[in-house]
Amino acid sequence: MNSNDPTVTCSFCKRKVVAKTQYDVPIYDPRSGFSLCANCIKDIYHLIEDHKEVEEAQQHIETEKAINDELNRIKPHMVKEYLDQFIINQDQAKKVLSVAIYNHYKRMKYGFQHPEDDGDEIEKSNVIILGPSGCGKTALLSHLARMLDIPFAVTDASSLTEAGFVGADVEVAVRNLYYAADKDISRCEHGIIYLDEFDKIARKSGENNTITADPGHEGVQQALLKMLEGNVVEFTARGQRKHPEAPTIKVDTKNILFIVGGAFVGIDKIIAKRLRKNDANMGFGSKIEGKNDKPKFDELIHQTTPEDLMKFGIIPEIIGRLPIICTLENLDEDALLRILTEPKNAPVKQYQKLMEMDNVQLEFDEEALRAVAKKAIERKTGARSLKGIIEDTMLDVMFDIPRSDDTRRVTITADCINNGAEPTIEKI
User: Fold this and answer.
1) Phi, psi of 219 (to 5 degrees)
2) Considering the entire predicted model, what is its pTM?
3) Residue from 165, 156, 140, 235 nearest 201 by CA
4) Residue 19: CB partners within 8 Å, gap ≥ 6?
5) For tag attachment on the chain, is the N or C end more exposed, with fewer CB atoms within 10 Å?
6) What dotted CATH number matches 333-427?
7) For residue 8, what are the β-bridge partners?
8) Neighbour count for residue 398 (Cβ, 10 Å)
9) What is the pLDDT of residues 209-247, one digit of tens each?
10) CATH number, domain 74-115+122-268+293-327
11) What is the pLDDT of residues 172-206, one digit of tens each?
């Protein structure tokens, strides 16, 4: 094309085009003479758009089929049966979580079947888990994550701060899920986020407002509001603070299920105080409550209400977005004894497998196992410390056993656990 002859032959359709403006032949290379006219570019664009629509429709069908398959695999009773293999007791918590996960998938299915917003949208059922340290909160969620076919990410809420303060912004929870989904935004937008240590971001002053800066507590709760409700969250891929030049990733949290959990130390006292206030009576006919008559922790924790959480320091707006309250009770000696031996990944089974690799048969007396359970109760750490107590007892044995390849039997007694006596080792 030159100034004397404005006619150009399109390299694609071979049509001669009079190039009055640059938009008549948007693509033109004067060196090679290659050109594409406006009509061809429009046709190519429509072809790509049509192909994209077909691909999206196919992906939509495949995703809906995958959700249907998963729904058949994770019916509430099936999820509970799976969790029973790893977690002892906590039946109520297993039921609550099983139903919450099943409803989450049904909500996703409903969203695929009714993509248009007709006002009949099913709201998210986010969950708040309460229970003492070492009762199985994190273990429940970690085993649940293995069973599910959707991305699952755990974030420590105590490390979060509101924007502008040193620490991690609340968006880090979504970023962790994004990486758990292998950077697939579509899968990420239908995943599950678990915020651990949620009680650590309660207001310092309980239910009362504070006039001082509270960057790691109430401010974080305020920052989490939109995310829990369902909003587009923007974060940087590398985790640096947001600024105008940093490329960002956008994820819609509308279909992300949030589960928050914590020990909520002291909430039983708040519940007990509320119950006493409700049952308060005075005079000669009033019942005198002795020390043994006071309700136990397990009885109290199952009576947790949103009002108790507000008194603990969780803001009302957050509580409204966490409609399901799931509570776990303390583990007694019998429960800890079962945890030591019954689950698939029981601590005793783990050490027996380790010793088998050295041709050693490891046995624990029942009294030894009871001694381990009692020590864990004394430490007030629940099931979390069971493996550590066994490790302390087994350390010298595991150090000396590899000196020989002989087949032997090692027996751990209660004396080994309580007094540090040496285990019985015999050749077999």
Assistant:
1) -60, -35
2) 0.78
3) 156
4) 1, 6, 7, 8, 25, 28
5) C
6) 1.10.8.60
7) 17
8) 16
9) 554 445 556 888 988 988 888 889 988 876 555 556 678
10) 3.40.50.300
11) 999 999 999 999 888 898 889 999 999 999 887 66
